[in-house]
Design a protein that fits this description.
This protein is α+β, with helices and mostly antiparallel strands. It is about 25% helix and about 15% strand. The protein has seven helices and nine strands; from the N terminus they run ββββααααβββββααα. The chain has helices spanning about 55-70, 95, 105-115, 125-130, 220-235, 240-255, 280-285, and strands at about 20-25, 30-35, 40, 45, 140-145, 160-165, 170-180, 185-190, 200-205. The strands form two sheets. It has a seven-stranded mixed sheet, with helices on one face. Strand 6 and strand 7 (about 170-180) form a beta hairpin. The longest helix is centred in the C-terminal third of the chain and has 17 residues, at about 220-235. It binds a DNA duplex (16 and 16 nucleotides) through helix 3, helix 4 and strand 6. Its main location: nucleus. Keywords: DNA-binding, Nucleus, Transcription, Transcription regulation. One of its GO terms (molecular function) is sequence-specific DNA binding.
DNA sequence: CGTGTTTGACCAGCGC
DNA sequence: GCGCTGGTCAAACACG
């Protein structure tokens, strides 16, 4: 992954913030280490704004989300000003890359009805669909969170649709899909094999709806507000274009009113830091050169 | 009964 | 071409 446009591992994600870019995999997925969430309460995440500067940080993200979130489910996530419309290669076609999860599509319905007619019918529809065309992945965004719980609440409801043992890791990887029938966002959750206390959450796609709150309870509106915006905001980090450069970058680089108190070990970082997070550097961390407008 | 989880099987992509 | 691995499906099951 080092031969690609991978960001510089270990670069500070944002000055004064607690996000640290931990690296990127070969698919161009950026990994961020969330320092704040390493502050764990006995109930799980400690999102208390009084203890973390995350409130201000994600307050910014929320603002960004409102700016970019004009697309609607079903109308494709690339509608309006949704940054997905201008993806890196211009090749991320949501309808193609995620056909099986577009429950609103007739294709999916066909697939389901076919499957329901037999005991164990072959998955021919998907097979035919994918034949001749590569599985195009949506932009993904991963971040590492120090947490005792695997599945972190982020304001959205997720349905688990699979779990797999991962090679070179004693911990299984869980696959989740947004329960919103029109939303194609997926996420993978796995623990780091190097540091079991770190949960690696990878989001794929972009929510086309707002948060649903925390139906299971346990979070205040404050916290829900934070976590609820986390996913879409983070997803959009990965998208190219002016939205990131104009809107997100400035806001996330603003100094926070509460200094970071905790230093997180970066042993999970795949490589040495070779570049500081200057404006360009930070941009280069997240947006490959080919994705930049200028 | 609705919703979510578990789990074995299947499939595609990729490296050798 | 073959085997490995990741990703997904879907029936069965659990739970409130």
């Amino acid at each position: 992954m080092e031969d690609k446009d991978a960001p510089d591992p270990g670069s500070e994600f944002a000055s004064g913030s607690s996000w640290t870019l931990a690296g990127a995999d070969s698919d161009g997925v950026n990994y961020f280490l969330d320092r704040e969430s390493s502050i764990l309460s006995e109930f799980g995440w400690n999102l208390n704004p009084d203890q973390a500067d995350g409130l201000g940080r994600f307050g910014d993200m929320e603002r960004i989300e409102r700016t970019d979130f004009t697309g609607d489910c079903g109308g494709s996530q690339g509608t309006g000003s949704a940054p997905a419309a201008s993806n890196p290669g211009g090749s991320v076609d949501l309808s193609t890359s995620n056909p099986s999860v577009s429950s609103s599509s007739s294709e999916d319905q066909t697939e389901k009805s076919t499957a329901g007619s037999g005991v164990k019918p072959p998955q021919i529809p998907s097979k035919v669909r994918k034949k001749g065309q590569k599985r195009i992945r949506q932009p993904r965004f991963a971040f590492m969170t120090k947490s005792e719980v695997d599945h972190l609440e982020d304001g959205y409801r997720w349905r688990k649709y699979g779990q797999k043992a991962v090679k070179n890791s004693p911990f299984p990887r869980s696959y989740y899909r947004c329960t919103n029938s029109k939303c194609t966002v997926k996420k993978r959750v796995e623990r780091s094999s190097e540091d079991p206390t770190i949960v690696i959450t990878t989001y794929e796609g972009q929510h086309c709806h707002h948060t649903v709150g925390f139906p299971r309870g346990g979070f205040s509106s404050h916290e829900a507000g934070f976590a609820g915006q986390l996913t879409p905001a983070i997803s959009q980090f990965y998208y190219p274009g002016a939205h990131f450069q104009r809107e997100i970058l400035p806001s996330i680089t603003q100094p926070q009113h509460v200094p970071v108190r905790e230093v997180v070990q970066s042993h999970s970082l795949p490589g040495p830091t070779t570049q500081l997070a200057t404006d360009n550097g930070l941009l280069g961390d997240i947006v490959p050169p080919g994705m930049r407008n200028t």
